[in-house]
């Protein structure tokens, strides 16, 4: 897609995927090209997770942000692929940390090849991405991505620290998701702005846009863990609670439910056991006390604020696509 | 220590530690300063392994290489601390991958805090180091370190790939240790050369020096696993074999011993079980067939070649220290 002077009319996310299909193909091409380790097993394991149907949301934000800032070159596709490599590295480590069986409906790499391979291929993907990022010789990009990686690791440790603790304050929950999820999405948007030659002010606006969107995305994702259609989601429902992970709907419920119900939840967080019937009961309570609605309202508020961050930019196809993508982040099934 | 025109007489590694004590203190200072995560648990876990008595060999090579190239500034201390951060990150992941109980005589972080924390704090230390490295805005340093990290991850995967396989060719063994161990030591030397303003030719000479030294170090370390005084080593002997890991002394023995002995070793590699008596028998065979001597001869040959890489440099204190440190890498207990 060439982002010329014509502003296209986009109505839905399907339109966005359609208009940017060719560019996203370019990202796929780069991803394949980068799977070039001389150690064949590295490529096999990395391909398993990279080809498991991820939506390439982060590369899309790199592309759209670059276009929003008037970029007409090709580097954004390679940069998008590198962001996806980093994201994939974190998924490989997350699956080990969470002892997950399924991701996007497929067995996780850790279940197929074992934890050791998942840890090491994660390390490889991450360091492979850093190698190529530094080849761009762009200080802003180096800083944005390394900072995002640092924040992700901190967010994950913080999450683990609070694991099994039903008394985690909501502010700490927000800090965790800002670190572990929003940081890389914010960096993706900022990198697009940098490569597009945007001023620092506009770079920061797109960074904030991505940060708010990332928080909204994780809020919605955490809520989906209680409400989604399990089969469609490609993983088991109620996983967060089973792993002792308190997310916003649960924190809200814990503040509003009866003492016996609170005890039940605390007990389940501690023992990391949960029957389907208990899960149904808890989801029912979340509906009753408005916990689901509360979490989704917060998500939508972050999306609305994110969209306002785009006010600094002129209207064009990329801006409309970013606004649609922003809504998509909290409405998609996953 | 100021590396002025006077060339000091150094006789032993003790002299080297002594002469560069102040500079190494500067490295420690930087290590402490960099343990500044807002997530307290990150600092606790990182400090556990960073303060467990590591010799700071890699930072020493950064310092000595910088001095060899006439460096008179202070950045080499910070760079040394960042190399140590990266090294520590790999140790945290290695301990999870190897399911190790002890490192340097202390319980591993994975045994104290669990695998999840070790994986994530490893990720943190690595990304924290990258953040600071890019702040130096030096392309050569960025490339040297990211490349070393990529190679380390590849080497670890390759090692895992060959795990339990007694038929691994010696060339693949050398490829593994060149990747997993020598890469970061080579990068340490090169970084010292870069910060010292050396020509590309001299940078490459120090890179090769470090690479050969790194290979020699790992060869000696792998041999120590069969011959060291267990208590002094701070870990259990015969661990490599117990983990199904073939190293050079074992590969040599497998090529020379009798068929029944070969079967015993293959069986032990496969089942990952080994009694103390069997270990004693295997070490005895290694002595008998010259396997220990063979591996150590290779190590010493790499050290000799490494020292010849220093021929391009003028004689000074740092050069003498590097030569002593080179010998130390294959003679120290660990």
From TrEMBL, chains A, B:
GO terms for biological process: isoprenoid biosynthetic process. CDD domains: Trans_IPPS_HT. This is Polyprenyl-diphosphate synthase. Gene3D superfamilies: Farnesyl Diphosphate Synthase (1.10.600.10). One of its GO terms (molecular function) is metal ion binding. The lineage of its organism: Bacteria, Pseudomonadati, Nitrospirota, Nitrospiria, Nitrospirales. The keyword Metal-binding applies. InterPro entries: Isoprenoid_synthase_dom_sf, Polyprenyl_synt, Polyprenyl_synt_CS. It comes from the Bacteria. It comes from Nitrospira defluvii. Keywords: Magnesium, Metal-binding, Transferase. PROSITE patterns: POLYPRENYL_SYNTHASE_1. Belongs to the FPP/GGPP synthase family. Its EC number is 2.5.1.-. SUPFAM superfamilies: Terpenoid synthases (SSF48576). Its cofactor is Mg(2+).
């Amino acid at each position: 897609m060439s982002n010329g002077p014509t502003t296209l009319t986009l109505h839905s996310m399907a339109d966005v995927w359609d208009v940017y299909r060719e560019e996203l193909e370019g990202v796929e091409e780069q991803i394949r090209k980068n799977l070039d380790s001389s150690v064949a097993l590295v490529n096999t394991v990395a391909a398993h997770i990279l080809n498991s149907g991820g939506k390439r949301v982060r590369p899309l934000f790199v592309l759209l942000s670059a276009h929003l800032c008037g970029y007409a070159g090709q580097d954004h596709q390679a940069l998008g692929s590198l962001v996806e490599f980093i994201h994939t590295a974190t998924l490989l480590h997350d699956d080990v940390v969470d002892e997950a069986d399924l991701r996007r409906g497929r067995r996780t790499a850790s279940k197929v090849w074992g934890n050791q391979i998942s840890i090491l291929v994660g390390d490889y993907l991450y360091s492979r991405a850093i190698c190529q990022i530094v080849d761009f010789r762009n200080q802003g990009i180096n800083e944005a991505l390394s900072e995002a990686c640092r924040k992700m690791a901190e967010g994950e440790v913080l999450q683990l620290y609070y694991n099994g603790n039903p008394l985690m304050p909501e502010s700490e929950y927000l800090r965790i998701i800002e670190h572990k999820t929003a940081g890389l999405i914010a960096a993706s948007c900022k990198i697009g702005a940098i490569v597009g030659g945007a001023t620092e002010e506009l770079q920061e606006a797109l960074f904030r846009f991505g940060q708010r969107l990332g928080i909204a995305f994780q809020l919605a994702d955490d809520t989906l863990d209680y409400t989604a259609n399990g089969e469609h989601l490609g993983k088991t429902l109620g996983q967060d609670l089973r792993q002792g992970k308190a997310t916003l709907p649960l924190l809200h419920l814990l503040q509003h439910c009866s003492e016996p119900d609170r005890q039940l939840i605390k007990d389940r967080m501690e023992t990391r056991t949960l029957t389907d019937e208990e899960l149904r009961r808890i989801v029912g309570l979340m509906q009753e006390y408005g916990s689901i609605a509360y979490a989704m309202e917060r998500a939508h508020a972050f999306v609305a604020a994110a969209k306002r961050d785009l006010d600094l930019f002129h209207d064009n196809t990329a801006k409309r696509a970013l606004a649609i993508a922003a809504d998509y982040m909290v409405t998609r099934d996953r």
